[in-house]
Amino acid sequence: MSSITTRPPTSRPRTARGSAVRRHAATTAAILALGLGLAACGGGDGPDTGAFKRQYDAQRTELNAITARIGEVLTGADGKTDEQVTTEIRDVERAFDAGLTKLERLDPPEDVRKDFDEMTRIARALDGDLKRIGDAAAAHDADGARAATEELARRAPSLEAPAKRVAEGVGLPPSTRTTGRAPTTSTP
């Protein structure tokens, strides 16, 4: 996990620092949109998976909508003030955190528990990355934003495999999610 280095304000105008923060946030938006969506396909419905499957499907739908919004916020940051970007990032991060908390409360069947735990651990770390992006934007800290978005970009793809295994394990079909740019197949 990268640490955020906070630098004291310099004489550069806020717009120069802010555009650097927005530029770094926008570079990971595509990765975020693809990586946060949790892939799902195929599988069977065992006797003890029905309730979990319904609850998980509802949560993946909610989280996919939130991750689409995260992508929109990050790609739409250009031309906005750091304060506007900070507010929007913090709003979507709080929504992601709340959806993730609901997901973590689910009780998965034993045969998918390991993958479910790995998936939620990775998603929780991504939530931390989003918090650091928001903190960096608030501090006009381009280096901090860069470090947090690079960490998010590095981590996001690792979410796909365990999410796919969970979905396959409980028999969920693919879920189409729109990221604001192009549809992707994904599932939380």
SSE arrangement:
Layout: H1 14-27, H2 29-36, H3 50-75, H4 82-104, H5 110-138, H6 142-155, H7 160-170, E1 176-178, E2 183-185
| Unreliable runs | 1-18, 26-36, 38-47, 177-187
Could you say which structural class the secondary elements and strand pairing correspond to?
mainly alpha
* SSE order, one letter for each helix or strand: HHHHHHHEE
Instruction: Let me know the number of strands.
Output: 2
What strand line-up does the widest sheet have?
A: 1-2
Helix content: 55-70%
Strand content range: under 5%
Give the end-to-end Cα distance, rounded to a whole number of Å: 23 Å
Main sheet makeup? 2 strands, antiparallel
Mean pLDDT: 75
Gyration radius over CA = 17 Å
Morphology call: elongated
Output the number of helix runs.
7
Summarize the structure.
The protein has helices at residues 14-27, 29-36, 50-75, 82-104, 110-138, 142-155, 160-170, and strands spanning 176-178, 183-185.
Task: Give an account of the 3D structure.
With 188 residues, the chain is mainly alpha-helical. Helices cover 66% and strands 3% of the residues. The chain contains 7 helices and 2 strands. Strands 1-2 form a two-stranded antiparallel ribbon. A hairpin with a 4-residue loop joins β1 and β2 (183-185). The radius of gyration is 17 Å and the shape is elongated. Mean pLDDT is 75; it is low at 1-18, 26-36, 38-47 and 177-187.
